[in-house]
Amino acid sequence: MDIGHLVRQQKNMFAEGKTLTHMFRKHQLEKLKIALKRYESDIYETLKKDLNKSEYEAFASEIGFLYGEIDEAIKHLHSWMKPVKVKSPISHSGAKSYIYKQPYGVALIISPWNYPIQLTFAPLIGAIAAGNCAIIKPSELAPNVSRLIADMVQNTYEPDYIAVVEGDKEISQQLLEEHFDYIFFTGSVPVGKIVMEKASKHLTPVTLELGGKSPCIVNEDAKIPLAARRITWGKFLNAGQTCIAPDYLLVHEDVKVELLKELIAAIESFYGKHPHRHPDFTRIVNRNHFERLTEYLKNGEIVYGGIADEKHLTISPTILDGVSWDDPIMQDEIFGPILPVLTFTQIEEVKKEIAHAPNPLALYLFTENEQTQEWAIDNISFGGGCINDTLMHIANPNLPMGGIGSSGVGQYHGKASFDTFSHQKSIVKQTTKFDLSFRYPNSKIGLKILRKIFK
């Protein structure tokens, strides 16, 4: 495929102005929902092949999410597209001020393997709603899903509007050499740095959805059995291969023993006595990641789990105690079904602990104390999160999703997706019925009036 030619085709199509109308964008969103429904059974099949995802998990964490996002965009698209009138200061007497929403042009969307359907089409919904063309690069690590995405898009859209380019990292590098108008990347921090560096060549704006070591704090006043169930669900969904999964536990020492007991009970309740053999427990994406994770099992003490099945690339949900920030498992995002446990005695200590890996993508806090809740929100820097739950903030289209610092740049979901793919163009519409002479350099009273206005 001639990537340069494809980009030029899309730039030409965008220049014709076809994507600018509400009717066009709404129709394209409707076509996307129809395509998802038509290919739903194929999506289940390919997710099972690549990651061993169950139909329940595939619908709950990928497809159902997208239906909601599309419906939200269609419902509110007209109001999102409208120019927003804003106040004009007294210095602009007679003028009206507006913010117009302008699509960037041709967007590049690079998606990951862990939620390959959701994290491909969620940003595409924003790109379409905002009036852009788009080229999608799915992850080669989920090859069956990648081929399906290519088929879906090819059978739904013309390539000069929405297209898919498949391939390995060399293809990604070729794409990043092109002059796109916007780049949306979801993936690891090291690759995110490369994307930002390549984008800087053309001063292309970017959204980087990255990750980091997202802490889960359990205070002494938490409802422990409930916390254990919600932590177990959030951590071991997709075998921990979730960018906003709880990466490690910070638990008050007074409730540590009880929490560990309840975590084990929750794991066995969800996945049985032998989770690594459960037919619907997600496998590790490839052998390299499997070997990386099995090395982490050598850190600390295995409280529960620790079974690695090399043949099926599965690792049972594992709890590790006795780890420290010097251990390899605490040096990088785990991205797997292993949960290290650290303790604290005073809630204020957690800020210092989290500072070892600052600016996580998510933070989860379990406590009944509202002052403690507000203290954590105000004093710890993180992308987003939940109080007394895990992961659920991502499922609300009214909440922007994004990181801070090393965990990412920019936000999306719901209106935030539309805003991400739109340039806010500021316009002043000035009256011609009169002219304020004090603005001109020959005015004798201009300085006096300006000082009164801006004092």
Features:
alpha/beta, Aldehyde_DH_NAD(P), Ald_DH_C, 455 residues, Aldehyde Dehydrogenase, Chain A, domain 1, NAD, 6-stranded mixed sheet, globular, Aldehyde dehydrogenase, 7-stranded mixed sheet, Aldehyde Dehydrogenase, Chain A, domain 2
Overview of the structural elements:
- With 455 residues, this protein is an alpha/beta fold.
- It has two domains: 3-210 and 403-427, Aldehyde Dehydrogenase, Chain A, domain 1 (3-Layer(aba) Sandwich), CATH 3.40.605; 215-394, 3-Layer(aba) Sandwich (Aldehyde Dehydrogenase, Chain A, domain 2), CATH 3.40.309.10.
- Helix content is 40%, strand content 18%.
- It has helices at residues 3-15, 22-38, 40-51, 55-81, 118-129, 143-154, 169-177, 189-201, 224-236, 256-271, 287-296, 349-354, 370-379, 415-420, 446-453; strands spanning 84-86, 96-103, 106-110, 133-137, 162-164, 182-186, 206-209, 215-218, 248-252, 301-304, 308-309, 314-315, 318-321, 338-344, 362-366, 384-387, 408-409, 422-429.
- The strands form four sheets. Strands 10-13-14-9-8-15-16 form a seven-stranded mixed sheet. Strands 5-4-3-6-7-17 form a six-stranded mixed sheet, sandwiched between helices.
- Strand 8, helix 9 (224-236) and strand 9 form a beta-alpha-beta unit.
- It starts with a helix and ends with a helix.
